[in-house]
Amino acid sequence: MSEKITPFDVAEHLKTDEDIKLFLKEAAETGSDKDFIHALNTAARAKGMTFVAQQAGVTRASLYKSLSDDGNPRFDTITKIVEALGCKLVVS
Fold first, then answer.
1. Which residues of 10-29 are buried (b: 16+ CB within 10 A; e: fewer)?
2. 1 lies in a domain?
3. Taking a C-beta distance cutoff of 8 angstroms, is the pair 10, 42 a contact?
4. What does the alpha-carbon distance between residue 72 and residue 38 come to, in Å, rounded to a whole number?
5. pLDDT at res. 91
6. pLDDT tens digits, residue range 35-91?
7. Of 89, 80, 92, whose CA–CA distance to 27 is shortest?
8. What is the pLDDT of residue 92?
9. Strand (E) positions, 1-44?
10. Residue 33 belongs to some domain of the structure
11. Nearest by Cα to 19 from 42, 38, 3
12. Which of 40, 74, 79, 88 fits a 20 to 30 Å CA distance from 6?
């Protein structure tokens, strides 16, 4: 009998705005800048790429490109995405 292994996708487990906030906070505190951008991608997929793009005032294609592994989003784009996810950037 063979076991079926399915890929794990964190986005499927981010059900609430609070889940997303805590996920992004952890990524910001413990990861690199690339890790945070990857976390933004995951959170945006959890919330819905179309919704996040609309809220951030960018196109869906631009959102995908900015948050891709090869993406290099501008700071203002990151800020818009964070706010679209119901969060804010804070320096402490």
1. eeeebeeeeebbebbeebbe
2. no
3. yes
4. 11
5. 86
6. 999 999 999 999 999 999 999 999 999 999 999 999 999 999 999 999 999 999 998
7. 89
8. 83
9. none
10. yes
11. 42
12. 40
Phi, psi of 27 (to 5 degrees): -65, -40
Domain limits for position 33: 10-84
Give the whole-angstrom CA distance, residue 67 versus residue 27: 15
Q: Which two tokens stand for residue 4?
A: 């079926």
pLDDT band at 2 (very low <50, low <70, confident <90, very high): confident
Residue 4 lies in a domain: no
The two tokens of residue 36 are 């945070």
1 pLDDT exceeds 80? no
Burial of 7 (0-12, 13-18, 19+ CB in 10 A): exposed
Decide if 92 is inside a domain. Answer: no
pTM for this predicted structure: 0.91
Q: Provide the pLDDT for residue 15.
A: 96
